[in-house]
Design brief:
This protein is an alpha/beta fold. It has 11 helices and 10 strands. It folds into 2 domains: 195 residues, 2-enoyl-CoA Hydratase, Chain A, domain 1; 48 residues, Orthogonal Bundle (Lyase 2-enoyl-coa Hydratase, Chain  A, domain 2). The chain binds coenzyme A. The site of coenzyme A has 15 residues, from strand 6.
Amino acid sequence: MHAEAQTIQYPASGGALLIEVAEYVCSITLNRPESMNTINEEIRHALPIALRAADSDPAVRVIVLRGAGDRAFCAGADIREFRAPQAPVQYRQNKVHQHWVAAFEAVRKPMIAAIQGYCLGGGLEIALACDLRIAARNAQFGFPETGLGILPGAGGTQRITRVLGMSLALDLVLSGRRLDAETALAVGLVSRLVDAGDLAEQSRVFAESIAARPPLAVQLAKEAVLGGRELPLAEGMRLESDLQSLLVNTEDSVEAANAFREKRKPVFKGR
Ligand code: COA
């Protein structure tokens, strides 16, 4: 695959982002616990670079987004950086903003948000931009933006509607209502719930369980599900079938069958 030939350029770990790669899992931690891991310019700049690096790194099969400390995953944009109103043309041309919103869409590997405490505004948008969400029982989800005279503008209005449906999405966006973790699980905003003290361990186990599977199958299965979102059923079926025909010709699919027959653990190579 293309990745072997590339030099992987992660942004410096430390400061507002901590980056760690182990056991095929890249853990990216928003590291501003004193201000609820809010998104500042440094994070806005470095996170897309980190995602791109992890996506091209052959030593990474799954990406986990975390928040440092135990009070918040991320309480949204750093309101202290809000300044004078921008002219509309400045806003539209703000490349950093567009880069930030698009960065998640380009990632082929699965992304998991491991969420504790406050998951508000841009924090919820990051969580929604991930493919999977595992939450601690103390998690709280909401969009405060309209109360600040803006809207969830980093994909929030679009992604929340696709995850929850129009009715609940509008309730959250227009009223700023918060959902607790149990409700988030019940409505499908998160797919797993754990005790707060177990989040780090359980999210690691979750990530490693996906990372242990043939990586191309995982990536193309993600592509089939996400790529089919906007397609009529017949076209979605066609996409699925095309991706499957790629997978049945991979070494890893043969290895999986051989390992099953030989009653041994498979060794996957990502090809
Ligand atoms: N931007 C900047 N600083 C923030 C912040 C944000 N979005 N959210 C929290 N903080 C800071 C607080 O100012 C405080 O800093 P301080 O100790 O220097 O005063 C610290 O984080 C802890 O927050 P605090 O409000 O004391 O804790 P809390 O448990 O009472 O409330 C929140 C936590 C997250 C509910 C509350 O801070 C809040 O509503 N924040 C705003 C969230 C928001 O509107 N996000 C969307 C932005 S578009």
